[in-house]
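Thread amino acids onto this structure.
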């Protein structure tokens, strides 16, 4: 059950990140989940490197969205993701 909730939250994170990056039209729900989950991992890793500790749910969500936005940006720059 925990992994289902993680996938749902990952999809939400990916969707919000795609709205921020204006790539929502190119992304389906599977891409939102993949970008959201992978971006969350990237965001939490980067937050750990910077010494940022997520103490509440809002900060954890923001870190996940920032990581997903960063992932979309990096994929765009590498030419592996369609540009808006």
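Threaded sequence (84 positions):
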């Amino acid at each position: 059950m925990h992994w289902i909730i993680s996938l749902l939250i990952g999809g939400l994170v990916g969707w919000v990140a795609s709205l921020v990056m204006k790539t929502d039209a190119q992304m389906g729900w599977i891409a939102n989940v993949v970008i959201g989950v992978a971006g969350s991992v990237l965001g939490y890793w980067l937050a750990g490197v910077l010494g940022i500790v997520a103490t509440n749910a809002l900060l954890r969500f923001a870190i996940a969205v920032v990581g997903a936005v960063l992932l979309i940006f990096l994929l765009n720059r590498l030419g592996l993701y369609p540009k808006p």
